[in-house]
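Why do we care about 3D structure at all? Because function follows from shape, and shape follows, mostly, from sequence. That is the central idea of this module. The next example makes it concrete: a single protein chain, its amino acid sequence, and then its structure expressed as tokens.
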Amino acid sequence: MSIFCIEDRNFSFLAQVLAGLIVFSGPQLLLADSDSLSSTETSKYEEEFQAEAFLFGAAPVISTAARHEQSILESPSAISSISADFIKMSGIFEFTDLLRIVPGLKVASVVSSYSVLRFRGSGEKSSSNDLSLFLIDGRPATIEFFPATFTNNLPISNEDIQSIEVIRGPAGALYGANAHTGVISIITKPPEDRVNVWGLVQAGRDGREGPGGWGPLDFGKASLGTRGTIGRFGYTVSAGAEREQDWVYPDRLSHRVVRWRGTLLTPAGPGEVCVDVGGVDAEGDIGIDIFTFHYNLVENYIRGEYSAGGLKTALLLDRLSSKLPVNMSIFGTSINFGDIGGDISLGDLSTEYRWEPVSWSRTILGGDVRATYYDFPIMLKEWQGIPLDRDLHGGLFLQQEFQILENLILTFGGREDWFLVTPQSPSGRAALVYLPWKGHAFRASVARAFRRPSFLESQALVDPSQISDRDTRGLFNGIIGKGNSLGNPHLINMKVAADELGYRYQPNPRIAFDLEFFHQEYWDTIRAAFWPKKNLQPGEKPISLTFWNDPDVVAQNGLEVSLEGKPLQFLTVLLGYYERRERLDPPMERIFNAGAQLKLPPGLSFNVMTQTLSKMNGEVTDPTVNITQVLSGGAVLRPVTYGGNTLVNIALWYEFLNGRAEVGVAGYNLWDAVTGKHHREEEGFIAADGTILGAEPVPPRYSLLCRIRF
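And the structure:
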């Protein structure tokens, strides 16, 4: 139970201990006159860290957990850092597969175009499969239209990434809406002192019989970029394209993406200005089985940021245009909604100021204002006095850090967010970090955060008069009716509260051990509902398709363990374990990670990563949701068992031309190739005729890679 939980609950034991430590150390705060954490010993310690990179968390300095650079040992949140070296050597095609090494974060491939990301089991009973916030250099990476992040459509390639920082746990106190169960922050590579040009090509086949879906290939991507400095200007430019065929139907396109991005950095007075522009042009399939539709999407953005001293101000303009024709046949009845796509325009102004009046105190104050306009011809503009075609969002946050003692750091703060449609919501956090000896850090923290309903969940109400097909319009009016489908403007925000106890041991760059215990509670979970109604009242429609808030509190406990080490100069190893359970019940989910990276002369590198997931059974999580019975003609569906598999990925690289060129081969999901089995990573159902309604089996994949740099 959390200090930030529902208002009528008492403080948890952890919160009381935290408060006691603060009170006990109070007098010391007034007398503290020691320098900040950058003592001579600490400076030497950080220099040792920076002298050598290793697989996981190449740098000791992170910036996402507290919105400023700090040692990873001082972080007020559970956090993982994935280095550029690991990204380069992994040979992984899909961006989301890079995140599998993060303890507590489950990556589940649903279809070839989409994977779900769940921190500590969140989202399993929600309409959203993704309750985390994606950032690219501080910019929200997706528009809040759909309750998920389609990482295939990000405007960057893996070669652009300097590091990925992952906060495991609620982070709404700093980042507001949708930092519900975690933050995935992508930090791109900065301009270099000299002009640098790079390129990457990767292509391959899925482990299936028969011809490839795209000529002899099933998937492929290419990217090209340059970074450098000209006079006072630093710049980065990159562009790429990616294509993949469907796993089950190789003649069907899964997704195609063309992406581009550029940044320009220049001094301006006492500070500097950074301009970031980018965009994507994508098409592909969205959905599963009979609910699969082809989409086209174009998104472009421009963001300008000015920073000087402790001040940082940014302006973002983003526009997304989409086409999504919805045509299908159910039990011989043709359903044609026409194009339900539209345009989303967004403007966001944010600012923050960091103030450090004394060596033992740091204050960060900030806020943002965002205006969003939705232009979807098939959707209502207003319903029952609630505007549906726009939203205005404002947020303010304050974070305070005190170095109570030379080795004791207190971080606390809160944020309030206001919206035009959904109610306002508070977020909060308090953390105490104790560093008793060099390389040891103990942390206790409490936090509360929320997820705002997406446009699809709260504001996307279908206007029947805009359905072009007469038969479909008549069918819709007859069984569903106006204002009775998709969005629910009366939804409130999902909420989460968490208590965490953590320990990190990292005395030098060659070893790092992390242990995390957590307790989380979720309530007001947003869930999808398809209700055929009984005992209809006069004028009431027989079916409702909408979203609703489940007030039940779901409490979960768990632990995360990771060990990264470099026992030999040429060998790096990684071990990780995660489990969660409800109350004191047996574990609901276990994930075990293991990996190694071997570098041998002359220029050979070998990388292997494995992940073992516990077996889980799919089930209808809500007895009122019987859409599956409707689709099967009333037949009871059998749940599909998923998980219970070992994922093995291997990459072999050879470097030549003094490191300017590399060639490699990569294999993905090789254990299934050896055993001949086909595993699923997400739940689904089997109809009476054997048709799978749900996640597709994940195939093995084999690819060739070539990378150049000059």
